[in-house]
């Protein structure tokens, strides 16, 4: 077991290195002067040279990378060019807000996705199955930023039931799960939940159908086990895969929230990225993406380990 | 026709290809949903190609006195946008950019990804390791994040947006191409060809390409739907097409402020993205079952 964990960790290391390289390269594929938003247009060459040296832009790439990676390893992601605050603290605050949204969306998406998937898997080719399959296709085909707008039109503009934007009455500070905050969370979380819902429904349907077609289910029924008892076996067999899908979806939602956050003015990482892009705040862009991608790598690792622990059929070698 | 044959191992002969394609067509035509989706895709492509003939009005000409008219206004069946431009005409002409942005990256990625993946699968060894580990790194980024990160760093614009999306779609295509090529490489007929003295290039051309391009292509078509959503998403964020060019994602963005005035007019461009994306998805599903690809 320890050996398995070690191997899995070792395997993740080159990925982490690769991810850091890509994030580092982001600043250097950007056209133009990296200092363009810091320096006044009439800055003298001497000032420019001094600033280049201060930011380390005058050193060779590999030195810059090592320095940047060394600092990042110690939690220093540099300074935001636009706000002059440390990137790390900005990102951490934003990640918290995105996490609230992504977890809520994963819970909703999973509850309904599992429900539809299990029902569809049990009653194959019935109308419920067809409805669930349609939902699955719609879930992956719908532009979610548009779905968000449509929900705002229906529930805010037309019915006036829910707020259209923001995180709560007092902005992004002091989030607590009270009614007012949950109302603000409802529409963005519901919009986001459609993405995993379709995928989960599709995966679960296939899983349940496959498990039910296996011989051991017939044997369980033949020995007189109740349908509820059989269902327990189905759950046990489907759980590892379902949990793996859930973990990955949470990761996708964390990284892919930018469009939904833009629609709902949700002050998370997507919002931060948006600001970073349009203010050409490259350290902020780089830092946010690095944190999100590393989060995704870690999540993948956890999912892999949990799945292996839960499923005795997977070889741990 | 081409040398594409089925993924079934016994079909190798070139003569069999016509029969195979006929059977694919027959199976595809039996699938009502897939046929309907194909018709919708065709209609959208035709509308995009002949947009300037079909569009009833000039998509760029606005009048301030007729801003944000509702759906069903006389002369403007789908209303007008925030600058008083005809929505119907803008949606039709907008199909050009949206399709171009959505389909081109997948096509280019299909080309590059197939070459890399087939080479990795066929050559194996260190080359395979190098290519596949690089691909793994890109898999560590959720696709939306990677697309936004790249086009954000490169700067807004149509070319940069398409370049970013191409980079996003190469890794998944490489993975699929590598997987099917590795399978085909282990088949007996490849072994037989090698034993008979065929060169590596001949084996790839005659035996491998024909058996792997089909599955890779089907997989690539399934990415078009994702690509359409991402491409319009980039424009929606202001990273793709620039105004006043009509493009569905950008239109959705500029009409966002109008959702309290003319909500259903503002939602129209998104509906177009949705319909196109779902049609491509169902078309791809139909193609997959008709070609009997299990991937």
From TrEMBL, chain A:
Species assigned in the record: Falsiroseomonas bella
Any one GO molecular function term: dipeptide transmembrane transporter activity
Transmembrane segments: 9-30, 99-123, 135-162, 182-201, 242-264, 284-306
Membrane topology summary: Multi-pass membrane protein
CDD domains: TM_PBP2
SUPFAM superfamilies, per database record: MetI-like
Lineage: Bacteria, Pseudomonadati, Pseudomonadota, Alphaproteobacteria, Acetobacterales
Protein location: Cell membrane
Limits of the ABC transmembrane type-1 domain: 95-307
Keyword Cell membrane attributed: yes
Keyword Transmembrane: yes
InterPro entries registered for this protein in UniProt: BPD_transp_1_N (IPR045621), MetI-like (IPR000515), MetI-like_sf (IPR035906)
Any single Gene Ontology cellular-component annotation: plasma membrane
Family: Belongs to the binding-protein-dependent transport system permease family.
Alphabetized PROSITE patterns for the sequence: ABC_TM1
Pfam families on file: BPD_transp_1 (PF00528), BPD_transp_1_N (PF19300)
This protein's name: ABC transporter permease
UniProt keywords, alphabetically: Cell membrane, Membrane, Transmembrane, Transmembrane helix, Transport
From TrEMBL, chain B:
Record key words, sorted: Cell membrane, Membrane, Transmembrane, Transmembrane helix, Transport
SUPFAM superfamilies in alphabetical order: MetI-like (SSF161098)
Predominant subcellular localization, coarse grouping: membrane
Protein location: Cell membrane
Pfam families: BPD_transp_1, OppC_N
Source organism, top-level taxon: Bacteria
Membrane-related topology note: Multi-pass membrane protein
Residue stretches spanning the membrane: 33-55, 106-127, 139-170, 216-239, 260-283
Record-annotated ABC transmembrane type-1 domain positions: 95-284
CDD domains: TM_PBP2 (cd06261)
GO biological process: transmembrane transport
PROSITE patterns recorded: ABC_TM1 (PS50928)
One of the record's GO cellular component terms: plasma membrane
The keyword Transport is assigned to this record: yes
PANTHER family in the record: OLIGOPEPTIDE TRANSPORT SYSTEM PERMEASE PROTEIN APPC (PTHR43386), PEPTIDE ABC TRANSPORTER PERMEASE PROTEIN (PTHR43386:SF25)
Family in the record: Belongs to the binding-protein-dependent transport system permease family.
Protein name, UniProt field: ABC transporter permease
Annotated source species: Falsiroseomonas bella
């Amino acid at each position: 077991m320890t050996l398995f964990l070690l191997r899995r960790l070792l395997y993740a290391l080159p990925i982490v290195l690769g991810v850091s390289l890509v994030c580092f390269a982001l600043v250097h594929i950007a056209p133009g002067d990296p200092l363009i938003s810091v320096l006044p247009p009439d800055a003298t060459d001497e000032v420019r040279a001094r600033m280049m040296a201060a930011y380390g832009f005058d050193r060779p790439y590999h030195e810059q990378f090592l320095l940047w990676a060394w600092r990042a390893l110690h939690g220093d992601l540099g300074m935001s060019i636009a706000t002059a605050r440390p990137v790390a603290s900005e990102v951490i605050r934003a990640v918290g807000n995105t996490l609230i949204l992504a977890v809520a969306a994963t819970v909703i998406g999973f509850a309904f996705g599992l429900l539809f998937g299990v029902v569809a898997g049990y009653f194959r080719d019935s109308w419920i199955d067809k409805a669930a399959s349609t939902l699955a296709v719609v879930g992956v085909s719908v532009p979610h930023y548009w779905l968000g707008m449509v929900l705002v039109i229906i529930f805010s503009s037309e019915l006036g039931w829910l707020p259209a934007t923001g995180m709560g009455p007092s902005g992004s500070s002091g989030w607590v799960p009270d009614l007012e905050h949950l109302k603000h969370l409802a529409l963005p979380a519901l919009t986001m939940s459609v993405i995993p819902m379709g995928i989960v429904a599709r995966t679960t349907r296939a899983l349940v159908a496959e498990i039910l077609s296996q011989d051991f289910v017939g044997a369980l029924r033949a020995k007189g086990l109740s349908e509820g008892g059989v269902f327990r076996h189905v759950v046990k067999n489907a759980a590892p895969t379902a949990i793996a899908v859930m973990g990955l979806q949470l990761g996708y939602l964390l990284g892919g929230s930018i469009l939904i956050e833009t629609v709902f003015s949700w002050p998370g990482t997507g919002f931060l990225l948006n600001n970073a892009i349009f203010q050409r705040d490259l350290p902020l862009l780089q830092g946010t993406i690095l944190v999100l991608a590393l989060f995704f790598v870690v999540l993948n690792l956890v999912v892999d380990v949990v799945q292996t622990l839960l499923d005795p059929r997977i070889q741990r070698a | 026709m081409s040398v594409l044959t089925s993924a079934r191992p016994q079909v190798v002969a070139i003569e069999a290809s016509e029969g195979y394609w006929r059977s694919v067509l027959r199976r595809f035509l039996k699938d009502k949903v897939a046929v309907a989706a194909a018709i919708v895709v065709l209609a959208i492509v035709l509308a995009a190609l002949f947009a300037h003939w079909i569009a009833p009005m000039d998509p760029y000409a606005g009048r301030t006195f007729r801003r944000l008219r509702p759906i069903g206004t006389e002369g403007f069946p789908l209303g007008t946008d925030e600058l008083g431009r005809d929505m119907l005409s803008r949606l039709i002409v907008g199909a050009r950019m949206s399709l171009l942005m959505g389909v081109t990256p997948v096509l280019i990625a299909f080309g590059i990804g197939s070459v890399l993946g087939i080479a990795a699968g066929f050559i194996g060894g260190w080359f395979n390791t190098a290519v596949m580990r690089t691909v793994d790194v890109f898999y560590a980024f959720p696709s939306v994040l990677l697309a936004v990160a790249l086009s954000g760093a490169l700067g807004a614009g149509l070319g940069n947006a398409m370049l970013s999306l191409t980079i996003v779609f190469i890794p998944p295509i490489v993975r699929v191409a590598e997987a099917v090529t590795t399978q085909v490489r282990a088949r007996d007929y490849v072994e037989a060809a090698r034993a008979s003295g065929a060169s590596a290039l001949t084996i790839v051309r005659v035996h491998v390409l024909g058996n792997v391009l089909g599955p890779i292509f089907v997989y690539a078509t399934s990415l078009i739907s994702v690509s359409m959503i991402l491409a319009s998403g980039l424009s929606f964020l202001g990273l793709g097409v620039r105004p006043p060019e009509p493009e569905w994602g950008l239109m959705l963005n500029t009409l966002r402020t109008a959702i309290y005035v003319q909500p259903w007019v503002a939602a129209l461009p998104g509906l177009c993205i949705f319909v196109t994306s779902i049609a491509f998805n169902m078309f791809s599903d139909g193609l997959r079952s008709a070609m009997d690809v299990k991937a």
